[in-house]
Amino acid sequence: MTPAPATDPATQLTTGLQSILPDLGLGSLLGLAAGYAVRVVGRAALLVIGLAFIVVQLLAHYGIVTVDWLQLQALTEPWFRTGRESLGDWFSRVFLANLPFAGAFVVGFLLGLRMR
């Protein structure tokens, strides 16, 4: 005698997966797109920041400008401290709100970062 379809573990698993499948598909697709965009934009931003640093260092070397690095650190440190403290709250609020979507998004995002 075969068990009823409602108690069949395979049927229960299939039914459970069907309810989260759209979230998994959309999350991974959007994560892939976001990861690829971050990779492309991040490279461009790092190139601009690196070139700006080289220009400032060259200007400082030739005595055209003087950079007070301690003052720059004092100005930027509160921003980094505030960002670091609120990062955990932001992460839990955004990524743990819809766990199947968030998990698929993170996997897609990481794959997007690795795309060539």
Can you tell me about this structure?
This protein is mainly α and 116 residues long. The mean pLDDT is 79.
Question: Can you give keywords for this protein?
Answer:
116 residues, mainly alpha
Spatial shape = elongated
Profile the largest sheet. Answer: none
Structural class: mainly alpha
Distance between the termini: 54 Å
SSE ordering: HHH
Instruction: List how many beta strands DSSP finds.
Output: 0
What's the short story on this structure?
The chain has three helices and no strands.
Task: Annotate the secondary structure layout.
Elements: H1 9-61, H2 69-95, H3 99-114
Helix pairs in contact: 1-3
